[in-house]
User: Which sequence fits this backbone?
């Protein structure tokens, strides 16, 4: 067994925690940015600049990638755009905390999608996680008249689309370089977003100067830096620990939302957040961190 250097292991965990923290804060930044520019324009700018930045940094990997990566990247890119668009439109009419936690349901959905594709049955842990997740969604989303708002429905849809995107990545990831595949995806998202913003968003205009710091935060930190942190962190950290650390994204998202006054942390909402978080941990780790090796 390969011996893991303690310093490297600590660095890997810090990298994953940094990625989760930045992603969690990005829900607030996106919420504020949507007050100034439309959804597809935001996605177009973010993925254009993010893709260009990654293409410069990882140009060697991109040059080595074969042509087969193009259709793979196109499929994953369309799914990624659909997921981001529904999540971002959902964020316009729901809180950043609810958006963060409801998006995280993709972790629970993936094993059931894999069931249909690989015939590998979900475990008891996956079923238990699904039940807890449904309960948490109800506590977070249901209003006083027992209905779910448009923002919550769109966010849940994004969770399903993210799960499909992960299935696509798992299928193509064994054939393609993951960094190059990410860059191609970003290019597809950028092009399609520009098409959408120029054809369906009549309110699009050049962003005001005060919006650009938020756009650069989303581009540089929440896109390029987090990708590097995730790649490095997961290479140095066991999968079960990686899942736990990355799932803290939703916790940080809710925490920032409460601190900055976007979220009213009532008891039902707190219980809902807790149930969704625990369901993600159970589904992702199968509680392996509790079993003696």
Assistant:
């Amino acid at each position: 067994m390969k011996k893991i250097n303690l310093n490297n292991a600590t660095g890997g965990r810090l990298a994953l925690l940094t990625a989760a923290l930045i992603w969690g804060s990005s829900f607030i930044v996106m919420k504020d940015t949507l007050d100034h520019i439309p959804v597809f324009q935001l996605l177009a700018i973010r993925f254009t600049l993010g893709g260009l930045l990654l293409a410069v940094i990882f140009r060697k990997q991109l040059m080595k990638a074969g042509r087969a990566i193009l259709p793979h990247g196109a499929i994953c890119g369309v799914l990624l755009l659909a997921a981001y668009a529904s999540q971002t439109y959902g964020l316009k009419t729901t809180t950043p905390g609810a958006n963060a936690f409801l998006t995280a349901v993709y972790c629970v959905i993936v094993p059931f999608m894999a069931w249909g594709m690989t015939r590998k049955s979900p475990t008891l842990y996956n079923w238990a996680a699904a039940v807890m997740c449904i309960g948490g969604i109800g506590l977070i989303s249901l209003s006083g008249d027992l209905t779910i708002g448009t923002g919550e429905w769109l966010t849940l849809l994004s969770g399903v689309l993210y799960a499909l995107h992960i299935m696509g990545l798992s299928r193509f990831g064994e054939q393609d370089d993951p960094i190059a595949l990410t860059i191609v995806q970003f290019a597809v998202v950028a092009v399609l977003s520009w098409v959408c913003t120029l054809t369906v968003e009549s309110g699009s205009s050049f962003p005001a100067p005060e919006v650009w710091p938020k756009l650069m935060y989303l581009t540089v930190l929440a896109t390029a830096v987090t990708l590097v942190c995730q790649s490095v962190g997961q290479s140095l950290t066991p999968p079960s620990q990686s899942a736990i650390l990355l799932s803290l994204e939703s916790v940080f998202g809710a925490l920032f939302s409460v601190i900055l006054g976007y979220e009213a942390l009532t008891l039902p909402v707190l219980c809902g957040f807790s149930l969704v978080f625990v369901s993600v941990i159970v589904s992702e780790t199968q509680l392996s961190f509790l079993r003696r090796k």
